[in-house]
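Session log. Operator J.P. requested a structure for one protein chain; no other inputs attached. Running the standard single-chain path with token output.
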Amino acid sequence: MSKLLSRKVLVPTGLIVAGLVVLNLLPIPRVLLPEIRIAAEPVFELFGFPITNSLLAAWLTMIVLIVGSWAITRKMSLVPGRWQGFLELIIESFYGLVENAAGAKWARKFFPIVMTIFLFVIVSNWMGLTPLFGSWGVLHPAEHEGGHPVQWLNDSHTIGLWMPTPTGEAEAASHEKAGEGYILVPMLRAATTDLNITLGLAFVSVLLTQYFGVRALGPGYFGKFIAVGRIVKAFTRKGLGCGGRIAAFFMGIIDLFIGVVESISEIGKIVSFSFRLFGNIFAGEVLLVVMAFLIPYLVSLPFYGLEIFVGLVQALVFMMLTVAFFVVAISHHGEEEH
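Structure written below.
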């Protein structure tokens, strides 16, 4: 048994090591390590406004969702075919999750919003893993050291290939003197790797939380933020007595403090939402880039599988947390007299 187990472990390990050795011996071109920037890069201007690569990716994601929705629903039938049945199964499963959390009444109102957020996030995350993202873009002259030479493909120097930096000292010195270093600004970058977009999604989620809270509880919903009810009753309610009024007053001060904490927590939701999504997806893309640079091609494949799973989990977490916030907002808060 131990010999069989050792073979199962040693043989795949030996094959992987042999593959890595072969890859290093073969004259395979190295993967270039692009500049890693947290902020999205402008790629062109439209009517004087800079258009960033993440904004282009967000537009592309919306186009994919709109065209995909149209293509899927244009031939719907009462007797679903194979693909329609598969998609209906997925939608019903997600609707069941929302209905279990929010109930049948509110699930109809919550589901279109949270499912749209889920689809936008997951499509954006998975599209960012395709070769369409990060592999082509606009070449800018490098302002500092670290640029790469370019092999121009036309006489007007508008289309070129980003090449590795010369390895020889003489070639590198002549390259630096000639000022031929360029950096590549990707034309497309996953929308969820831009903090502005994740902040926008988080802001919409929290804003809709307040909307559903007011819709369910009326103006009294804001009582949890501006909790002055006990302080007012400490001076206006009859039959409390001196000790009762003092106790009610101090309980009102506690409620007021809790209201401040509730207000801060709403802002905290925006921060936690946006940074969680941004941090996980951006870190995943950096991991893929670095692994492809250190050990090109085959070794990066397991990490792609990991990032596909992470993209799904992050979209699902964003969706279900939004549902949870909606449910908390529509829940009735206990009255102090009870």
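Operator note: The chain has a mean pLDDT of 75.
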